[in-house]
């Protein structure tokens, strides 16, 4: 679909495409060495793509130059081994197009955009929005359905229409609505249009329904688990996929460690980063302002859950 | 409160502070001459401040450099006659601080920021958010309560706490919750803390409850009406204020002209800009992508309402 | 409007129409003597009507026969001195009509009904709903706009249409949307159609906007305060009305005493009933299952607020 | 769990438990012969239980005596062949208990209750609510999770707690949240606690996740389809279950035939009843006031979808 002249083109495919955490220094600057290590950690696990500057990547907090630097670093490490998808997240079309142009320039193989938010919107305008982004920047475009953040839900009929006319190359569902996911899969040409689920906990079910791939935030902490789940599903070994999913569901309890007044996002992103620190992948668990950092009791709970999931040995004390 | 060394300081005060529309050319570039004329039109009506890059100013659509240029142009025309407030609207703290720094540089006298959006948030994080913005840029900071866009409501207790500790210099209510507005007015020091209402239609009531000022989008089209309303209220002539409000309530029906599938924002911003074209203030009614433009029937309805409100003569045909 | 042949007809009018609490024994049976005393307490304060089986009256908890008994008792005590309005609250038309028939039989002078709830609904169906209720039972019908309970908002245009065609005799706003309240007042014939506000805290503002009356739950505890507020407003003495309102706003903090896990309704109804016990009007503060009863600390806070509002002397220890 | 002394006890089990439509005459009275035929139609298809006075049964519209008569008629026809579950749907505990007592008297084998609605509620109160219902009436109690109607979601932890202490015998999910359904299945004792899905369109997935049974409204129109789907799932023949589901998903488009202004419920219930008329099971498609009846074009679309699903022959003209 992309004919931007860049050669050889990285073909967008399904599989495990983790939404990368964005490692920060204690001063809240981008921690480039940690980001490089994280990218290597994911590639080493055999993931099939890398999604930068998504919600898990704290995109809503990152200044533009940091977003671009993240993409540049990850695309540099990936070096064409797997496609790099870039979230181009902003309130409305002209601002999104600015991000899309920057993403093209900094090495993205595909773009992921939400419906407009903050500004009131309407399905008729959402369709214009995606068409204008697609027309402005020649990269495959995926629609990112994340009602918890944008407060509108993409109707399967809208997705189907934008798939049909070539605006969209794919769809990432972070709504949790598996019924709508199935409707999309029933109506698009699944040979040409890729459907991803953002669910950590219904990954096996999503694949069973025909989804091409997964974009699990928890895949930062345990990419091997998701790669195994995906491989089992691909082989039709659903019992094994379900067993892996059951383990990952228990591990996903990390997102609930934050017991003091804080957003659930503070808890989840804090826990993913803490898990990466505990596993020795990144240097610091620092999250962006104004998120509330996890305290020692909460971090101990993250450790406990990692031990239970066989990602750490209980005796070690490496936090 | 500001000690930025810029002299002479423009003191932020109450009164009529219209949120300026952002005139665009048919190619959707900033129409600087029209923006200058609009600023002059408002100053000529005797407004007490100018609020740029707010929701009415299509801030969610404008790229950063356009936001900055708008501020620069308006501050240039205002030339210290009245304070210029700049909306620094973005998803979370680090991005908002970038806008705040740019606003300081381009001539803002005060900043207006919302709670975080897109990213999940929590009252504990909202307080950190405003404190960090205030700490980063030395300009008076107003909290902008606009739940329809950000999907959280600022609790009066949070506003009071941030007023008390000097984080906030004021509050702009666009929630429509007059009970909460009253609670804020009951708990802050109204000698030092400014409360604005964003309501076009409950302006008289807001002033009666003690609000210091108004930020009405419709004030682009009819600034004289709001200046008269404010003057009557200041003189305790509530009957006159209510009569003016009644006329402005009828005029505000312009926001509902859009009868085809479109967001209510397309209808409202389209109508304000059409009204400014009809009144000869700006050149084009163009709105940002992906808003749906008003059609001829809808524009005729805008004209009819302006004639009814005595802002146009019925015989003229100047559209 | 009612031509039911009952003579002499009690004319529905504006003024203070408290929504009566429903006193219960510790065994959660209707406490008839307390209900009689409460009715007398309100009539003695000079209220202009009595509203039974509304939300404040725990209508959602009361079995049908209790609802009917409440109405019977209150209508008996009122004995034609003031009109008795009955809430006929249920999920959809046929069930509401059953309540309406029972209310006619047990002494109601007017009916108060919400839009359908639990069942999905639509404005086109809401209009049918009110028309069918009006056609079935010949009593003046008021629409009760309470989105927090029914999860739809009555559009002013719908209210105006149903006022125009004689379906509705009035409207009770418990939405808190004063802008819509004003729209209703602008479009109905206010000589024939009565508009009530259910707000405890914006009562003066509602009257200033033209509302005919008030239905404040807090009016159980302090009917004299609302009668004074209404009298001041009627005399155009807005400063006095606002001062009374300010005192009542502080008293209304009673609804927030419930600090443990409970619904805000448990807190509010518990506090109103506790206030009535403290003032010696009813015997027990018991609320319906499954509401959480207030504990001693919470009750002490109710007492403190009553003392502050001059409804109790601080030295007494009558709880 | 039930020790009501009624012998022989009907054991509640999983399987297909359709929520029966409530046939009405054109005068909107209960059509008893049609209800008897519908019950026979379902039993003939081999369903495993019957659920009366649920949302599909228009419970929100039916007066108490109609609810009781429906139960009596269906229990009479069922005659102990399969358990009969009765929805005891009302706003809060005391009213629900009244329905529960009536249901026990009129032949229910189990009760299905929602969280409180209309009245504000809280998880702490929801737990009390179910415990009080269970204590009052000795029949197995299922929690009915239907946020679209009651506007709260039952947390899996609440369900697990009420399962653990014996309050609940089962859970019916009509939230569409398969992730939560899975959490419930992971935490309860699935030997003793029954989990049903109310989804027409994710029935295969729900069974795959471990649900014991299905309560599909569309099962009125095509009980054989759901019985086949359930049988295939029970045999581990997931390909066959998915194929049946795919056909039923297409048929479920009947709920969207209503293209004029009406609630989606008018469309869905109208379509189910129209389908039953077309299939010769019930006499009239009449729905309760204030639902909007389907018009001829909408009915033709229902027919078309039934023909496509092989439930009618295209040539016939039996509507």
From TrEMBL, chains A, B, C, D:
Domain of life according to the entry: Bacteria
Xref: Pfam families: DHDPS
InterPro entries: Aldolase_TIM, DapA-like, Schiff_base-form_aldolases_AS
Keyword annotations of the record: Lyase, Schiff base
Entry annotated with the keyword Secreted: no
Matches recorded under PANTHER family: N-ACETYLNEURAMINATE LYASE
Family from the record: Belongs to the DapA family.
Protein name as catalogued: Dihydrodipicolinate synthase family protein
Protein source organism: Saccharopolyspora taberi
């Amino acid at each position: 679909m992309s004919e931007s002249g860049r050669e050889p083109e990285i073909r967008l495919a399904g599989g495990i495409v983790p939404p990368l955490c964005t490692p920060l220094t204690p001063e809240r600057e981008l921690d480039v060495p940690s980001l490089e290590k994280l990218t290597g950690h994911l590639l080493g696990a055999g993931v099939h793509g890398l999604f930068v500057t998504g919600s898990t990547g704290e995109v809503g907090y990152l200044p533009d130059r940091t977003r671009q630097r993240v993409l540049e670093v990850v695309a540099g490490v990936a070096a064409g081994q797997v496609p790099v998808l870039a979230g181009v997240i902003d309130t409305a079309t002209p601002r999104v197009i600015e991000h899309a142009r920057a993403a093209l320039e900094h090495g993205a193989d595909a773009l992921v955009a939400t419906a407009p938010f903050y500004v009131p919107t309407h399905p008729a305008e959402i369709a214009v929005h995606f068409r204008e982004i697609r027309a402005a920047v020649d990269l495959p475009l995926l629609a990112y359905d994340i009602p918890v953040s944008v407060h509108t839900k993409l109707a399967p009929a809208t997705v189907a229409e934008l798939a049909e006319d070539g605006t969209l190359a794919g769809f990432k569902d972070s709504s949790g609505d598996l019924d709508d996911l199935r409707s999309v899969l029933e109506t698009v040409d699944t040979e040409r249009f890729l459907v991803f689920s953002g669910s950590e906990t219904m990954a096996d079910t999503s694949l069973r329904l025909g989804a091409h791939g997964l974009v699990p935030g928890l895949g930062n902490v345990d990419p091997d688990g998701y790669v195994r789940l995906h491989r089992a599903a691909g082989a039709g070994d659903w019992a094994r996929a379900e067993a892996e999913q059951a383990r990952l569901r228990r591990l996903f309890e990390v997102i609930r460690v934050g017991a003091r007044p804080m957003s659930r996002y503070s808890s989840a992103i804090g826990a993913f980063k803490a898990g990466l620190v505990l596993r020795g992948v990144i240097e610091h668990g620092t999250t962006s302002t104004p998120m509330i950092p996890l305290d020692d009791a909460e971090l101990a709970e993250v450790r406990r859950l990692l031990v239970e999931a066989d990602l750490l040995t209980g005796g070690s004390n490496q936090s």
